[in-house]
Amino acid sequence: MGTVSTSPALPLWRGRALALTGIVLLALNLRTAVASLSPVLDEIGADVPLSSVGIGLLGTLPPISFAVFGLLAPAIARRIGLETALLVGVIAMAIGHLTRSLSTSYPMLLATSAVALAGVGVCNVLLPPAVKRYFPDRIGSLTAIVSALMAVSTALPPLIAAPVGATAGWRVALVIWGALAVVAVWPWIALWRRERRAVAAGADETIAIDQPEALAGIWHSKIAWASAVVFAASSFNAYALFAWLPEILADRAGVDPFAGGALLSLYGLAGFPSGIIIPLLAVRLKNLGVLVYAGVAFFLIGYGGLLLAPATATWLWVICAGLGPLLYPVALVVINVRTRTHRGSAALSGFTQGIGYSIGATGPFLVGLSHQLTGEWTVALLLLTLLGLAAIPAGMVLSRPRTMEDELARSPLREGEVR
After folding, report:
1. The pLDDT value given to residue 247
2. Does the predicted model carry a pTM greater than 0.90?
3. Class (C level, CATH) for 17-199
4. Domain 213-411 maps to which CATH number in 1.20.1440.20, 3.60.150.10, 1.20.1250.20, 3.10.129.10?
């Protein structure tokens, strides 16, 4: 392909056990700060006064944090180094988790949640560059592992938090995930120390890799915008449906609340296999547009079914809508296969996730607003379909196997600035 290492794949553990451990533990922590809170809000409310507005603010904090730190993380990594930035991010997650469990007021709960989510936001962006740096020969398999573990970190906390919160209290239910974050700190301390020794000895070749100054013009990159649009289409639809799918199904298909909850779980589970399979396919395809078009097709089938025949084979439309966000693992792979260096990967990751989460965060609001204004869900479903269709031009850009650095180096807007 020219964008992925063509050298023979090394054994996964050879000389990289510490990096693999760090990446695995980090991926296991990337969604616990979000998924562990809502199941114990009732218990928290008994000790910490929570208003509807306050709960809503806690709910909007994750995508806002991911968007803000998505844009800031590459600059942080350039300033202090990849390993140092990841170490800071993991420590912030651990501190946020642990101090959140000690909250005695809503401002403290909000502030400590913001600390944890800031750490998540930094690590969201810098994990793909870490995969590229330590496993350039296994980008597909490592991205699949990361996607699977992130799914676990989303699904596991609600299963554990509610029963633990009911029996041992909400503080214990939250501190469990702080302990897991503390465990994730240790391999990154070791990687940071190893990086510092390598820098001091002048032996760290990866840090010395040329970083094209053209990356400063990432806002002019078609690849960067295509990657961001693919990510945004996925996150907008996923956030919106996780917020509104049971209500949509109740009104359009007549399902009861129990069935609506089950179908929401089915929606979430539908994306799990694609998170594993898509990265393995993507690194073998020169034309990544094919996968983007597949995601758009699933959106069209799912939303088309909910618009035209919602009460017929409702489960099928839900599964198809849930397969549409296969665009998310596609975007994660694009970050690595359409860049040459881990610094380029960090820049593209920050741009993709910063823009993508900013748009995605508006999904629940815009879908809810359209329903409030019209009194039904047709416009909302058409809006979701439109956001899915927006990925088609992005797929056309990503169909060409070239790197962002090469694209920017050839850009007329950057001529004369690269050297």
Report:
1. 86
2. no
3. mainly alpha
4. 1.20.1250.20
